[in-house]
Amino acid sequence: MALSCLLAANTVSAEKSPGKYCDTPSRCINPVTRYGAVTSPNYLASVSGLDVLKKGGNAVDAAIAVASTMNVVYPQMTTLGGDNFWLIYNAKTKEVRALNASGRAGEKASIGFYRQKGYDKIPSRGYLAANTVPGTVSGWDAAYRYAHETMSNPGLPWKSLFDSAILYARDGFPVTPSLARWEAINVDPADSEFRNLQRFDGFRQTYLKPDGSPYKVGEVMKLPELAGTYELIAQKGADVFYRGEIAEKIVADLEKNGGVLTLKDFASHTADWVDPLKVQYRGYTAYNLPPNTQGMASLEILNILNNIDVAKLGEGTADYYHVMVEATKQAFADRDKYLTDPKFSPIPLDYLLSVQHGKDQAARIDMNRAAATVKPLDPKGDTVWIGVVDKDGNAVSLIQSIYHDFGSGIVAGGTGVLLQNRGSFFSLDPAHVNHLEPGKRTFHTLNAAMLLKDGKPFLVYGTMGGEGQPQTQAAIATRIVDFGMFPQDAVAAPRWLHGRTWGAASNDLKMEGRIPQEVLDDMKRRGHPVARVDDYTDAMGHAGAIMIDPETGLRYSATDPRGDGLAVGY
């Protein structure tokens, strides 16, 4: 399948004016639209967002419609029981707002609680893994209220934003390749500790067929309990999830099975508006989310690359891949040292994102040798990223997740809500910067990105993929800014992943098979532990982007051929 749209004709010189990104348009699916644009990892979800825009909704309305639909049709990556983070550009106020809707550890969740039960690590699956309050619905609520109070277009009624989610949950939806694949992976009886999710009654009854087998591509899945939960949220608002009958059902199921969350935990939860982080990159302002997310690492990579002539390296060369990987190592070293809930431990963000620190990090990169003194990275989880731009120029970069594929594996009785296991990433070592404490937010891989030019959105972009998020963000940004690619070309181009996967003892560098063998050989010569992977492996994550041409205002959208997504607009 010829999806590698890495076209030499799509590169530009530095002398070209802004907005003139290449002489010929992308040869991949690359919708170019004048008004609204939506991209997500699932085609049904993208269309639901477009429908909201065409009915008069604003970018936040559409993002909620997409995200709520994703929670139905893409439960391997996101559900009502997860967290989300937002970057919102308000075209009326000309400001970028950041929203942290991640949940905190419950009042009973302590190191002592787990130690007394004999654990030296929080279980990755099961009721004890579901130890943080789901933040997703609170994020939708806070973003909706902000948009409807401050944007020039007040948008649509709250209840209308869940029509698609309710429809697909109640009447069913065709199972996609990604969902079928992850279901098959997670009903492996040989992996009783992590993958054997059919051992949980709620998961088996909700996501598997009556005979206990996983769904196949094209078979129709129905989620009637989840439809009922969505109908309550649509009718009564977010309060019913945190202080009403949904919270009561979730907590009752957790208490019955030894879980830790309480009604007080749900009732006291809030999403928080926070100050976005930003750095300069080649005349653009790059925005991302502050801790407890790894947005600081994503911006550190760009801050390092500011000191390197990336365009001169050549896109797709060994020099390019080497520099990107080495910059990532530098950023991740800081991230792993400092990142946690900043209310519990100070993080020197001004220093980490300073111009001088970026220069110092860049100076440590040896073009001939891969840095070896970098400790192994922990594996991280799965996510969805959603991008929306509306006709008024409002923009949303939204990321939502349940951590591991299918989260904790626990579907709370009577609700259809699959709970996340994000809190399993807390450490039970009191000396660790990210150790467990009641009321604390854990280290989050989630981060959403935007680039602004002259105070207006130029690029709305992001990806799922845990460790891969900062790396893929850097790939997209450099390919568009430094090499002049269209978004679809930048997203579809060969990618890499510095990190490790489940159960591995050490880092490797996964590089897609489309990368020429001579480049892989050169990387190995420099000391990189290269592992060649499939041409379009979803281990790289499902990315997306929307570029707004500063001259014409046209929206160039992109989705990832590695997923089940669609970029749409009008």
Number of helices: 19
Reading side by side through the largest sheet, how are the strands ordered? Answer: 1-20-19-15-14-9-8
Radius of gyration: 22 Å
- The overall average pLDDT, rounded, is 90
Name the shape in a single word: globular
Could you describe the 3D structure shown?
The chain has 570 residues and is α+β, with helices and mostly antiparallel strands. 33% of the residues lie in helices and 18% in strands. It folds into 2 domains: 31-35 and 274-381 and 444-569, Serum Albumin, Chain A, Domain 1 (Orthogonal Bundle); 45-271 and 392-425, no CATH class. It has 19 helices and 21 strands. The strands form 5 sheets. The protein has a 7-stranded antiparallel beta sheet. A hairpin with a 4-residue loop joins strand 12 (411-412) and strand 13 (417-418). 57% of the residues are buried.
Descriptive terms for the model:
seven-stranded antiparallel sheet; alpha+beta; Serum Albumin, Chain A, Domain 1; 570 residues; 2 domains; disordered N terminus; globular
List the helices and strands and how they pair.
Layout: E1 32-33, E2 37-40, H1 43-54, H2 59-73, E3 83-90, E4 95-101, H3 111-116, H4 136-150, H5 163-171, E5 173-174, H6 177-185, H7 201-207, E6 220-221, H8 224-236, H9 239-243, H10 245-256, H11 263-267, E7 272-274, E8 277-281, E9 284-288, H12 295-305, H13 310-313, H14 318-338, H15 349-352, H16 355-363, E10 382-389, E11 395-403, E12 411-412, E13 417-418, E14 449-453, E15 456-463, H17 468-481, H18 487-492, E16 496-499, E17 508-512, H19 517-525, E18 530-533, E19 543-548, E20 555-559, E21 566-569
Parallel strand pairs: 17-18
Antiparallel strand pairs: 1-20, 2-10, 2-21, 3-4, 3-11, 4-7, 5-6, 8-9, 9-14, 10-11, 12-13, 14-15, 15-19, 16-17, 19-20
